[in-house]
Design brief:
Blueprint lengths: L3 E8 L15 H17 L3 H6 L2 E2 L2 E8 L8 E10 L4 E9 L5 E9 L2 E2 L11 H9 L3
Antiparallel strand pairs: 1-4, 2-7, 3-6, 4-5, 5-6
Length: 138
């Protein structure tokens, strides 16, 4: 599989802050989800496409590393890299400050492909997803 990497830009909103005026730790997961959805859209195989094809990709495992707190109106770039597609989808994320390029957060997610009707594990990626990955970047 060729290297699949995308970037997603965001700006920290006021409602993402905790009482210490830094991004509440749980909101980083929201940033990862937004970057993952953006990546799938760029590949051309979204969660809606998966569902139409009878598949789901729930998150089974997350590894998170908080490096530096983010603050209100800080501009961030989330780089998402697909590490593996089969037997499960593994994605690495790095969040950097858009101005300084300093790393503020990193993570990995592992998502298991399921048959949407039976909720049984499927160890082969959907054909539509594989086709999107093949076309990406050409």
């Amino acid at each position: 599989m060729k290297n699949i990497e995308t970037q997603y830009k965001l700006k920290v909103e006021f409602y993402d802050l905790d009482p210490m005026n830094v991004v509440w730790h749980g909101n980083y997961l929201k940033y990862l989800e937004a970057a993952r959805c953006d990546m799938l859209e760029k590949i051309g195989y979204t969660y809606d496409d998966m569902k139409k094809d009878g598949f789901a990709y729930p998150v089974a495992k997350m590894e998170l590393k908080y490096i530096k707190p983010c603050t209100f109106s800080q501009e961030l770039v989330v780089t998402s890299t697909i590490l593996e597609v089969e037997p499960a989808l593994s994605i690495k994320y790095v969040i950097r400050d858009a101005v300084t390029d300093k790393k503020v957060f990193e993570a990995k997610s592992l998502q298991i492909c399921l048959n949407y009707k039976t909720m049984e594990t499927v160890y082969k990626a959907p054909d539509g997803f594989l086709a999107g990955l093949e076309k990406y970047g050409k």
